[in-house]
User: What shape does this take?
Amino acid sequence: MPLTLNNTRPIEILLVEDNADEADLTMETLREGRVRNQVHWVENGEEALAFLRRQDRHAGAPRPDLVLLDLHMPRMGGLEVLAEIKQHPDWKRIPVVIMTSSDDEKDVIGAYNKHANCYVTKPIDIDKFMEAVRSIEDFWLSIVRLPAA
Assistant: This one.
C-alpha cells in the first residue's frame, strides 16, 4: 500500500523546473515510487509563486508539502523563489529541496543562506538522475515527518 501524509492524503509536491525533459523524468520517477503523491509542475519562479498564492490558473492549487526547486530559470531564479518561500509566514515550514545542475559553491552557499532544506546536484547520467530523485523521495517522503498544512 502506498504511503501517504499522516495516512490520510497524497503528498503534494511542487516541482519548479524549466527543462521539460527533466521535469518529465522527475515526475515519472516519482509516479513509480512507493509514496502516493501528486506532483504539480510549473516552469519558472513566477509561476511557482502564483501557485503558492493560488493566483490565476492556480486558484485551486493545494499547499505543497514539499518543493523541488531548480535554481537557474528564466524570469525569476530559484534563489529568489526560495527567499520568498522562507520569508512567508505560511510557507516557511515547507521543505525546499534545491535540485539543480549547478555544483558551484556560490550557489550551494547562497541556497543554504536562504534556508534551503537541502541541495542536490542533478547527475547528467539518466540512471543516476533517477536514482537521485528516488533518494529524495525515500528521505523526504518516507523517513522525514512533514508538517501538516
In short: The longest strand covers residues 11-16.
